[in-house]
Structure formats: structure tokens, C-alpha cells
């Protein structure tokens, strides 16, 4: 009998979810660190307390297979209505099955409830082609690039919140 993946909000006081997110994040960002030759990136050095703070301050969604967190995404909406989405992670064994897209749709829906979010924004490294391809497929377009160093350029993508409904239904 197979299990299906469920997506839900992680509670601010869910210590088990915070620990699982931290471990999954560490696993998922290894390939990014290798791609850019930098193992000191923030997702690999983030503390458990910092993740707990993110759980309390923003929206964190988790995808679970049974009791195991197999994917996660985080987001916040600022006073101007810009929803910032970050740290979309999917366990390597679960990648390429649409789970990242499902999580992206779910966080957009959650952050856009009640007309809160006017636009969605996220970023990725310039060499992270699978990530960039996913974001473009979901209606995101390039808004800026910022060269961090000789190895890394940050690519910022965005879309209006009214684009979300169109893309999600397409």
C-alpha cells in the first residue's frame, strides 16, 4: 500500500519539524555548495534556533510522506505586499516528480490569501538551472542579477500575484 505526500503548515512550536527541516536542508544544499564551490553558504550553516525563529515569524510549509518531512518551503510578506519565497527544498529521492511545483503553488496560495501578497519574489544562483527552470515554468521572470563573487551571481525572479492564479490553472 503506497503513501501519498501531504502538504501542510509547520507549527511554530513543532520541534520535530524544525529538526527534520534542518537535516533535509543540509542534505539538499550539498549539491548547491558543490556547484558553486562554497560550503559556507547560509543554508548549510543555519542553526536550529534560526529555523525555529523562521517557523514563528513566517509561513513554513512541509511536505510529508508519512511522518517524514521530504520537502519544505518558506515565505514572508512585507508591508508593501511583496511575498518573498525561499529555501524550496525537496529530498533528492523525491525530486523530478512535481513536488517542488506543488509546494511553490501552495506557498503562493497561502501567502496570497486575503490579497496580502501583491507580487511574489524568489532568488537562485545563476548555475542552478533546474531551479531556474522550475521558477520560469511557474511564471517567474528575471528582474535582476547581482554578482556576489567570481563564482556566484544571484538571479532574482518575480511575478505578480494575479499571475499565480493563471499559471496554477494552466
Offer a few descriptive terms:
170 residues, alpha+beta, Aminopeptidase, seven-stranded mixed beta sheet, 7 strands, globular
CATH fold description: Aminopeptidase
What percent of residues adopt helix (DSSP H or I)? 25-40%
Q: What would you call the structural class? A: alpha+beta
CATH architecture term:
3-Layer(aba) Sandwich
Give the topology string: H per helix, E per strand. Answer: EHHHHEEEHEHEEH
Total tally of structural domains: 1
| CATH class category | Alpha Beta
Rough outline: globular
Cα radius of gyration in angstroms: 15 Å
Please report the number of helical segments: 7
Proportion in β-strands: 25-35%
Main sheet: strands, sense, barrel: 7 strands, mixed
Average pLDDT confidence is 91
CATH H-tier superfamily? Gcn5-related N-acetyltransferase (GNAT)
> What's the β-strand tally?
7
Outline the structure in words:
The protein is of the alpha+beta class and 170 residues long. It has helices spanning 15-28, 30-36, 42-45, 48-57, 99-112, 129-137, 161-169; strands at residues 5-9, 59-65, 68-77, 82-90, 119-125, 141-147, 153-160. It has a 7-stranded mixed sheet with strand order 1-2-3-4-5-7-6, with helices on both faces. It is globular. The N and C termini lie far apart (31 Å).
What is the secondary structure topology, with strand pairs?
Elements lengths: L4 E5 L5 H14 L1 H7 L5 H4 L2 H10 L1 E7 L2 E10 L4 E9 L8 H14 L6 E7 L3 H9 L3 E7 L5 E8 H9 L1
Parallel strand pairs: 4-5
Antiparallel strand pairs: 1-2, 2-3, 3-4, 5-7, 6-7
Helix pairs in contact: 1-4
Amino acid at each position: 500500500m503506497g503513501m501519498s505526500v501531504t502538504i501542510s503548515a509547520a507549527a511554530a512550536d513543532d520541534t520535530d519539524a524544525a529538526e527534520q527541516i534542518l537535516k533535509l536542508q543540509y542534505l539538499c544544499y550539498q549539491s548547491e555548495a558543490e556547484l558553486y564551490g562554497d560550503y559556507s553558504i547560509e543554508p548549510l550553516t543555519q542553526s536550529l534556533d534560526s529555523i525555529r525563529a523562521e517557523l514563528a515569524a513566517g509561513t513554513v510549509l512541509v511536505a510529508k510522506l508519512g511522518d517524514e518531512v521530504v520537502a519544505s518551503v518558506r515565505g514572508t510578506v512585507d508591508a508593501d505586499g511583496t511575498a518573498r519565497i525561499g529555501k524550496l527544498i525537496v529530498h533528492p529521492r523525491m525530486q523530478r516528480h512535481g513536488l517542488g511545483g506543488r509546494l511553490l503553488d501552495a506557498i503562493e496560495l497561502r501567502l496570497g490569501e486575503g490579497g496580502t501578497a501583491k507580487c511574489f519574489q524568489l532568488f537562485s544562483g545563476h548555475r542552478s538551472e533546474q531551479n531556474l527552470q522550475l521558477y520560469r515554468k511557474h511564471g517567474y521572470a528575471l528582474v535582476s542579477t547581482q554578482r556576489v563573487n567570481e563564482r556566484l551571481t544571484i538571479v532574482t525572479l518575480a511575478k505578480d500575484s494575479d499571475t499565480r492564479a493563471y499559471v496554477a490553472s494552466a
